[in-house]
Amino acid sequence: MRPSPRRLLNILVPVKRAVDYSVKIRVNPAQTGVDTNVKHSMNPFDEIAVEESIRIRERSLSSSPSSPSSPSSSPVTITALTIGPPKALDVLRTALAVGADSGVHIAIGEKEAMPEPLAVAKSIKAWIEKQNEKAGGKEGRVDCVILGKQAIDDDSGVTGQMLAGLLGWSQATFASKVEVDEASGEVTVTREIDGGGMQVRCRLPVVITTDLRLNEPRYASLPNIMKAKKKPVEKLTPADLGVDFTPQLEVVRVTEPPKRVGGGKVESVEELVAKLKEAGITAA
């Protein structure tokens, strides 16, 4: 009997349902936030994270001639996780359609506010610890988390760093290139920095956040969309993970930026100085 393939890498990819990037953002009439009664889709940076996890699996298959070519028999498993109302299942199904093996939905009420980054990081940490405790030995343990560097709705850009800190794992942020050495358990990441690129080498387990230039996400085909409906999705609540989603911050008011007004022309420096004085602008 042929032995089952050895699982070399188990990747968790958190994905978020956010207002679609093509939608013009408007503040709601109550000024408590933005109008969310619009088109939503997967956070673009998370799409890149899903794509990279799939590419890691494809490279693993191509570099092992003895390994089966089927993703289901790959030594790399991919689990997508989302937090949100029932509608968040849409982005989870999208991740499953493009190649994730299974999903996790941490459900909240339709009217509940999305949890803050620290609560998200604590939820992911709790699920990883629960999964790794269930796995016992090395087989089946989550040893890599790949997520977008930020969500385009709140632009916090801190969830990955918080998660790495809570877990005590290595971290590589703003990744524009990821290389996994399965034999040594090392991951080499090229990071986007102001001056160009920085290469860092981490040992598994690791948390990686993705930047725009890492890859170009693929589209889900119709057959794979249909197959995704049969893939397993674990449903949990914050209480199941022992995490409190009570907000620590209070939003007092949300307003749109002031309308831009047109400029004017002056005939001389003296007129410019006079107008500046009229506006209450004086030299320091």
From TrEMBL:
It comes from Coprinellus micaceus (Glistening ink-cap mushroom). The keyword Electron transport applies. Pfam families: ETF. InterPro entries: ETF_a/b_N, ETF_b, ETF_beta_N, Rossmann-like_a/b/a_fold. Belongs to the ETF beta-subunit/FixA family. Its main location: mitochondrion. Residues 57-79 are annotated as: Disordered. This is Probable electron transfer flavoprotein subunit beta. It comes from the Eukaryota. Heterodimer of an alpha and a beta subunit. CDD domains: ETF_beta (cd01714).
